[in-house]
Amino acid sequence: QYQLVESGGGLVQPGGSLRLSCAASGFTFSNYPMSWYRQAPEKERELVAAITSAGGSTNYPGSVKGRFTISRDNAKNTVYLQMNGLKLEDTAVYYCRGPFDSWGQGTQVTVSS
Question: Is the pLDDT of residue 14 over 90?
Fold first, then answer.
């Protein structure tokens, strides 16, 4: 059974940083691309970062490009999302997405002064 467990969310002031982690199990992690999504209240879930299976290529929407960095450690079956320069509008529940449309339970990120 595919399992994704996110951690690292919390409350941070504008301009601050957080690092999210997503630990994967139940599949051969190094074979699959991974991604991070977020969903703010009353908004649709949106992609914020994606990474290829070996980590050689990444993709970001314009809203987070230059501030967020996705990375992975295939030896630890973990994907990360480093978020710098956080803004109020980054407040959302952040989800890790894996193969076969598998999702984690989400971790709350709140940016507030």
Answer: yes
